[in-house]
Amino acid sequence: MDGLVEVVILVAVAVLGVALARRIGMLAPILLVVGGLALSFVPGFPEVHLEPEMVLVGILPPLLYVAAIETSVPAFRFNLRPILLLAVGLVIFTALVVGAVLHMLLPEVPLSLCIALGAVLAPPDAVAATSIARRIGLPRRLVTILEGESLINDATALVLLRVATGAATGAAVGFLEIGRDIVVAAGGGIAVGAVGAGVIGFLHKKITDPLLGPALSPLPPVLIVLIAEEIHSSGVVAVVVAGLYLGHRMPTLMSAASRLQSDAFWQLTRFLLEGLVFLLVGLQLRDIVRELNTPWGEVAWITAAVIGVLIVTRFIWVFPATYVPRLIPKIRRRDPFPPVSHPVVVGWAGMRGVVTLAAALALPPTSEVEYPRDLFIWLAFAVIVVTLVLQGATLPAVARRLHLPQDETTQDALAEAAVQNAASKAARDRLDELADGVPERVLHKLRDLGEHRVNKAWERLGGGGETPTRVYGRLRREMIDAERGVFRAARDEGRIPEEVLRRAQRDLDLEESMLHRTVEE
């Protein structure tokens, strides 16, 4: 019962923190981390010990899975070069540089363990970077690149961590053993993800019940990562591969009702997990400080050096990775040189998160290798807090100061209107094929609906002002409220049973949810 009470308290605090952040216009991850730091020293507040397995199996896979499902596969493929350069090349480069610097500062610590910590600190957080990027309205391509990086970089870091710790403990010391571990981890993860995606896709297609289909949704990320880890391959790679495939094929795998239910489930799950993740990071401060045995003077300058190296290393990599490939004419024709503001923003979007702390907690115990494990865990925690608060809080100002070119919304609206026009024509043609024997008023209503969708798409080109579609949505919502009042009064007076009210309420709620986007746009 105590555990359940603690979970309820944590969820309540996370929800209140997100609500407060939205109310005061602050980024939720920053507020939750700072709030967790403060709450960790409040007497009587639940002590939560963050276990690596809880993060790497219970929290990270669902977050990566839903992010992969929502990722555009064509956009991911188009930006594959910059994504891989960041998610693979930068992670390896950062791990090696941080490992070398840390080994110079602590020469008594084996280089392999220093590189292991570099791998722990290398990957930016999968949640912080993309949530902040979307919140401040970065250009779509930068958001895609940061999202793609966050989907893959954890896998690179965890594979490198496994290899480095294996070398430190004597489990893998030769190039053949290291190469084999990398192939098994990456290749096995791809294979498990592909097979898992095929099985889950088959089940989704066969299950037509609008409740059974969404009930299957929470299982893939957990099962896939467990199977992948069982054969010593990368669970992160497996989950991302499965999510990308299923997200791309979802319109043909699930019914409309199942997709709506599944989307609602994943929105709530992501909201709760993202809030809990950053709150849990902050709550670890008390335990980490309590277990720190290294003198504080030494801790301070090593922490400052490592954080500085991390920030500088990202910029050193990002600029050549952005411009050097474009010196090749074929690449430059397909993808011209971007403005300098783009690599500056990508370089500054290096916020670390809970995976860094979980990976640090998974470092080998001092009984296997002698090294300052308490200092390494502190460094991971300090990097998370400093990069999240420093870079996360200032990234909006940096983006504004650079005057980033925004995506051309007019082009988006034109493309949408053209496709909607073609889609409505296809719908009208199909209606004409089925029109025999259909009452004329039904045909007229269906044709009006198609025309309404086309008009709505073209209205977006008109800019501000209250368009006819918005007027319709606003007035229809008022009408729905009036209908609800009549049904509730009839229920209260005993003229209709509760079941009738619930059925009518469900229909009205569904219609209002369809109108909500129209009124808000």
Can you characterise this structure?
Helix 2 (28-39) packs across helix 13 (256-283). The protein has helices at residues 2-24, 28-39, 52-69, 73-78, 80-105, 111-121, 128-136, 140-169, 175-206, 212-216, 219-230, 235-253, 256-283, 285-291, 296-323, 329-334, 341-348, 354-361, 373-402, 409-433, 440-459, 468-492, 498-520. It is mostly helical and 521 residues long. The mean pLDDT is 84. The protein contains 23 helices and no strands. The chain folds into 2 domains: 2-50 and 85-190 and 270-407, Na+/H+ antiporter like fold (Up-down Bundle); 410-520. The radius of gyration is 26 Å and the shape is globular.
Give the name of the CATH architecture of the largest domain: Up-down Bundle
**Global geometry:** globular
Q: Sketch the topology as an H/E string, one letter per element.
A: HHHHHHHHHHHHHHHHHHHHHHH
- Average pLDDT, rounded to a whole number, is 84
Report the major sheet. none
Alpha-carbon distance between the two ends: 45 Å
Percent range for β-strand residues: under 5%
If you consult CATH, what is the topology of the largest domain? Na+/H+ antiporter like fold
Rg calculated over all Cα atoms: 26 Å
CATH level 1 class label of the largest domain? Mainly Alpha
State the helicity in percent bands: over 70%
* Strand-pairing-aware structural class: mainly alpha
- What is the number of independent domains? 2
**So how many helices?**
23
Number of strand segments = 0
Show unreliable segments: none
